[in-house]
Amino acid sequence: MKNMFEKITAAPADPILGLTDDFKADPRTHKINLGVGIYKNEAGNTPILATVKKAEAILLAQETTKSYLGIPGTPEYGLAVQQLLFGADSTLIAEKRIQTAQAPGGTGALRVAAEFIKRQLGDVTVWISNPTWANHHGVFGAAGLDTKTYGYYNAQTKDIDFDATIVDLNQAKSGDVVLLHGCCHNPTGIDPTNTQWQTLAKLCLDKGLLPMFDFAYQGFARGVEEDAQGLRIFADQVPELLVASSFSKNFGLYNERVGAFTLVAKNAEQAIISFSQVKSIARVIYSNPPAHGAAIVTQILNDAVLRAEWEQEVADMRDRIQEMRVLFVATLKQCGVDADFSFIERQNGMFSFSGLNKDQVNRLRNEFAIYIVGSGRISVAGMTKSNMLPLCKGIAAVL
Ligand code: PLP
């Protein structure tokens, strides 16, 4: 028989997950991983949240079947997601303008969104911030969509380049989609202010652009409610929007693949019709979603005691990362670094753009076993009190 796989050439390793493989294979015991965006506690572990363990115990006792879920998952999960995104008393929910499909992680939700855009909205362009999460262009490109970038980051000021954002988005055509990071912009850690969110929402409204939020870090910037402000500002102004949200980080449910694709339409009827297309997309990709992770999230969000405890757990993760930001800046100074790194303290979430170049990133890896993504993005969540000094000494040596 003819060998059909002979012609296949190797795909490039994923820039972030490939780094994790290299890190795991590195025999040096003092190695430090600031690559992938996974929360680590002070001991360098990614523990299961206490509320997740409690919810799982309840589910184990109460679960009666492993039968399939419906294509969009359970209605209870959908409602819990909507309330978390838009607020428990959101008029959008009351007016039935929202529909949610449980999806396999934030990535699964983005992929469903991409397919929905391609099939139902046609050959529009998806505008993506520069820089962005490495997978965005891939996910939208996989659906056959054209992507373009809008300016977002000013490397000199280490802040948002909002003028560039506006100039570039003014080039977008009516019907195009604008992808926004709900909070904790990945990789820069810089989010728009409320005034900037207002300006962006008005721009989308005036130009007829469809906003699409990628919301993977709710609770990691300032608080679960506070972090939804940008999304809610938009929801107040525009008639239609899309959201791909993820519970990988804020529930620590990385490997359970829990996410959601949420659609807001102008009215209940359009929401139902549009959502019927979302269901037919999910049906041919994964048929129906995995149940366990979403059941955990539903259990926690619908139980007042567990929910309060979960919010505290999110606050603890957020506070530890913030503490590491402050300690990082102070320790760099202590290691004789003159360059101003204070911007790290002002940024949100797991990531910051360190400003380290490719050569410096390579030297850190080769000489100090410190793993950072090639773009210079650092995952602050990988820092601990005990790895801080060797980390900062390494950085001081390559600067
Ligand atoms: N969107 C952004 C901005 C992310 O950083 C990530 C994960 O790192 C995702 C989406 C995907 O999340 P999930 O792991 O739930 O697929």
Automatic annotation (TrEMBL):
* GO cellular component terms attached to this protein's record: cytosol
Name its co-factor(s).
pyridoxal 5'-phosphate
Q: Write out the entry's keywords from A to Z.
A: Aminotransferase, Pyridoxal phosphate, Transferase
Stretches assigned to the Aminotransferase class I/classII large domain: 30-395
**A GO BP term, please?**
L-phenylalanine biosynthetic process from chorismate via phenylpyruvate
Provide the GO MF annotations for this entry: identical protein binding; L-aspartate:2-oxoglutarate aminotransferase activity; L-tyrosine-2-oxoglutarate transaminase activity; pyridoxal phosphate binding
Report if keyword Transport is assigned.
Answer: no
Q: Which CDD domains match?
A: AAT_like
Q: Does the keyword Transferase apply?
A: yes
EC assignment: 2.6.1.-
**Superkingdom:** Bacteria
The cross-references to InterPro entries, in alphabetical order and at most eight, read: Aminotransferase_I/II_large (IPR004839), Asp_trans (IPR000796), NHTrfase_class1_PyrdxlP-BS (IPR004838), PyrdxlP-dep_Trfase (IPR015424), PyrdxlP-dep_Trfase_major (IPR015421), PyrdxlP-dep_Trfase_small (IPR015422)
- What enzyme category does the UniProt record give? transferase
| One of the Pfam families matching this protein, by short name | Aminotran_1_2
| Family membership noted in the UniProt record | Belongs to the class-I pyridoxal-phosphate-dependent aminotransferase family.
Q: How does it assemble?
A: Homodimer.
**Which PANTHER family does the UniProt record give?**
ASPARTATE AMINOTRANSFERASE, ASPARTATE AMINOTRANSFERASE, MITOCHONDRIAL
Write down what this protein is called: Aminotransferase
Q: Identify the species of origin.
A: Photobacterium phosphoreum
